[in-house]
Amino acid sequence: MKKIFLFLTLILCLSLILSGCSFPTGNTKMEKTQNSHSTVKAAAPADKNKTAVPNTHQSETVNTTGWIHVAHPAQIPILMYHSISTGGNSLHVSAAEFSSEMKWIKDHGYETLTPEEADLILTKDMKPKKKCVLITLDDGYQDNYTTAFPILKKYHMHATIFMIGKSIGRHNHLTKPEMLQMAENGISIQSHTIHHLELSLLSNANQQAELVQSKQLFDRILHQKTLMISYPSGRYNPETLKLSEQAGYKMAVTTEPGAASRTQGMFALHRIRIVPGMSLIGFGRILDRAN
């Protein structure tokens, strides 16, 4: 009888020991370790071979430290260039003249603007304490890279190139790698439509296609939010203004002469055409009057 009692007691103890192995509280520390391991695995480093997205939109967040408010609608000079070369018409400004004009801007303490900064100035009546200017070049000629770009880098300047979508990589025009390189070095690439057609002569549907498709193209190529457009030949009509805003742009420039101000409408901003043979005295007076 005593042997039977001992045998039953042994069976009961073994049962209790085996059932205790399944208690959830016994594995708390291990569960925490396993959870932390799975978290580390989920946050594994990115593929080293993956191409990094270039930070081409470097001015999207504007540093307004030291900026001041102005009491009246702010205005700025927006300079209009095309080809930086010698040629037979007013669209060509020589490298020597362009360099002298950029040096004048630098020597006279001007701040060159990004499109984001220009938008903030014109809409919020805030400006840097320094005089400022937005430098633009239309059409995206090859010499904008080979000639203008080194000069702009030399003087540590921002500028904006309005590129034609269908001209990318074509003869005498910018390539995609060139645009990316410039965008990484303070030169903004913005829209000049897809086919460079006079928008005012197009149907509303065709205008919309030119505006929307070019924005999508430059957004994709440059990994940015394209916010500015230059109307080909400066031509537009009331529908162009509406469609530009609907396409997602924040502002547009024309060829109407003079300083830019929001009183013109943010989608009909004026520019100052820089022509060959202009004296530096005349160049300086134009800029000073427009600030």
TrEMBL record:
Annotated region (Disordered), positions in chain: 31-54
Family annotation (PROSITE patterns): NODB (PS51677), PROKAR_LIPOPROTEIN (PS51257)
SUPFAM superfamilies reported for this sequence: Glycoside hydrolase/deacetylase
Signal peptide: 1-24
Residue ranges of domain NodB homology in the record: 131-291
PANTHER family xrefs: POLY-BETA-1,6-N-ACETYL-D-GLUCOSAMINE N-DEACETYLASE, PTHR34216
Domain of life: Bacteria
Listed GO CC annotations: extracellular region
CDD domains linked: CE4_NodB_like_5s_6s
Chief localization: secreted
Subcellular location per the Swiss-Prot or TrEMBL entry: Secreted
GO molecular function (one): hydrolase activity, acting on carbon-nitrogen (but not peptide) bonds
Family matches, as InterPro entries: Glyco_hydro/deAcase_b/a-brl (IPR011330), NODB_dom (IPR002509), Polysacch_Deacetylase (IPR051398)
Protein name (Swiss-Prot/TrEMBL): Polysaccharide deacetylase family protein
Any one GO BP annotation for this protein: carbohydrate metabolic process
Keywords: Signal
A Pfam family recorded for this sequence: Polysacc_deac_1
